[in-house]
Amino acid sequence: MINEQMYAYGAESSKIREIFSYACARKAEIGAENVFDFSLGNPSIPAPDAVRKSIERSLAEIPAAELHGYTPAPGLPAAREAVAASLNRRFGTAYTAADVFMTVGAAASVSCTLRAVTCPGDEVIVIAPYFPEYRVWIEAAGAVCVEVPADPETFQIDPAAVAAAITPRTAAVIIDSPNNPTGAIYPRETLQALAAELERVNQAREQQLGHPQPIVLISDEPYREITYGAEVPWVPALYEHTVVCYSYSKSLSLPGERVGWILVPQVSEGARRVMAAVAGAARALGFVCAPALFQRVVIDCVDTPTDVEAYARNRRMLTQALAEAGYTYVEPDGAFYLWVRALEPDAEAFCERARAFELLPVPSDSFGVGGWVRVGYCVAPETIERSLPAWRALAESYR
Ligand code: PLP
Predict the structure, then answer these.
(1) Helices 381-396 and 308-324: crossing angle, nearest 10°?
(2) CA 117/CA 98 separation, integer angstroms
(3) How far apart are CA 290 and CA 288, in angstroms?
(4) Which of 111, 247, 258 to mutate to test the pocket of ligand 1 (most atoms within 8 A of CB)?
(5) Which residues contact 133 (CB under 8 A, 6 or more apart)?
(6) Distance between CA atoms of 146 and 123, rounded to whole angstroms?
(7) 127, 180, 285, best to mutate for ligand 1 pocket (most atoms within 8 Å of CB)
(8) HSE-up of 226 (CA within 13 Å, CB side)?
(9) Cβ < 6 Å from ligand 1: which residues?
(10) What separation in Å is there between the alpha carbon of 375 and the centre of ligand 1?
(11) Angle ∠(184,380,38) on CA atoms, nearest 5
(12) CB-based contact 216:241 (threshold 8 Å)
């Protein structure tokens, strides 16, 4: 006897992983330098030196039994305090360790939050295009994934469209800015408009039910630090019922080490219950006690800057060349993805043709919309440089 839903997730795997596996096999066949793999969001720049120093210091100074032992379920108090203090310095807030729950990366942050704030049959709104795992995590919680299209030109949130999709079963909305896959950053005014729509629903609900039942805004922010100049507004300052999900996978280039956090500002009895449910969800899902060594890295590196310049250079090189070759794309304000319009309506067919040129972007169908591809430019600059003739030849093949 197996769970057919889980079987299906395992059997189908993700399109991104499938392309990545093809890339590995193809590289073995024709040489790594001849394959242009733009599939994964694996940071191409190494973790900062401060990470190595922190690990070395921990290994030298902390007895092994303590260093590698279990931490408290929500994380080391010092790690939670360090995160709260860093946020307070940056956003003028007054968080404490009690507002922070250390997790096993953003995947766990979002999964635990969804499990905490939904009941089976509840609806969770995502903005299409969206990170494909959202659907898996939502459905695994027994909830229903409701797609609301972003603006088709700018890929910004349309707050009125979100409001129109809200029903009495809407429990949460997930946003992701800087955005995977489009690179869009949601400006303050857009987030304020979204918050106003959600507040309006919350007030109507409270009047009807006789008790508050606010919609939770899940702000998934693994790319917060990767911005090319645009402000990434602090969402809890704009909407009270925000839960922030964070990870160091991208900002410190540590995707394999699995460390991040959930922030639930303890501003009300309702928020305290949400945090308790987050702790319960982490327990139920087996995500307690994030990796101890890397919680200590967080203590030491919580304010270590991200080397955005390397991604900025890749972004410049790729966008200039693709524009010259006649492609259209969304100018990315953040993250390390370029959202490029496919040169035919069927993005899967376009990606098939791109394969003949050894170009491996991800078709947009995986992200819930048709007609586009995601090009992950978190790769070595030489990969981009070598790929440019192939991009030009691909465009030429459509003329
Ligand atoms: N959320 C988004 C938008 C992502 O792009 C990713 C990873 O690419 C995750 C969550 C998962 O991040 P993590 O590796 O920290 O679990």
Answers:
(1) 20
(2) 18
(3) 6
(4) 247
(5) 14, 107, 110
(6) 6
(7) 180
(8) 34
(9) 41, 105-107, 131, 176, 180, 220, 222, 247, 249, 255, 260
(10) 16
(11) 55
(12) yes
Q: Is residue 117 classed exposed, middle or buried when 0-12, 13-18 and 19+ CB atoms within 10 A define those classes?
A: buried
Residue 45 bridge partners (DSSP):
none
Amino acid type, 99: D
If DSSP states are collapsed to H, E and C, what string results for the chain?
CCCHHHHHHHHHCCHHHHHHHHHHHHHHHHCHHHCEECCCCCCCCCCCHHHHHHHHHHHHHCCHHHHCCCCCCCCCHHHHHHHHHHHHHHHCCCCCHHHEEEECHHHHHHHHHHHHHCCCCCEEEEEECCCCHHHHHHHHCCCEEEEEECCCCCCCCCHHHHHHHCCCCEEEEEECCCCCCCCCCCCHHHHHHHHHHHHHHHHHHHHHHCCCCCCEEEEECCCCCCECCCCCCCHHHCCCCEEEEEECCCCCCCCCCCCEEEECCCCCHHHHHHHHHHHHHHHHHCCCCCCHHHHHHHHHHCCCCCCHHHHHHHHHHHHHHHHHCCCCEECCCECCEEEEECCCCCHHHHHHHHHCCCEECEEHHHHCCCCEEEEECCCCHHHHHHHHHHHHHHHHCCC
Categorise residue 335: left if φ over 0, alpha if ψ from -120 to 50, beta otherwise.
Answer: left
Per-residue pLDDT of the chain (399 residues; tens, 9 = 90+): 899 999 999 888 788 889 999 999 999 999 999 999 999 899 999 999 999 999 999 999 999 999 999 999 999 999 999 999 999 999 999 999 999 999 999 999 999 999 999 999 999 999 999 999 999 999 999 999 999 999 999 999 999 999 999 999 999 999 999 999 999 999 999 999 999 999 999 999 999 999 999 999 999 999 999 999 999 999 999 999 999 999 999 999 999 999 999 999 999 999 999 999 999 999 999 999 999 999 999 999 999 999 999 999 999 999 999 999 999 999 999 999 999 999 999 999 999 999 999 999 999 998 999 999 999 999 999 999 999 999 999 999 998
**Side by side, which strands form the sheet with 372-376?**
329-330, 337-341, 372-376, 362-363
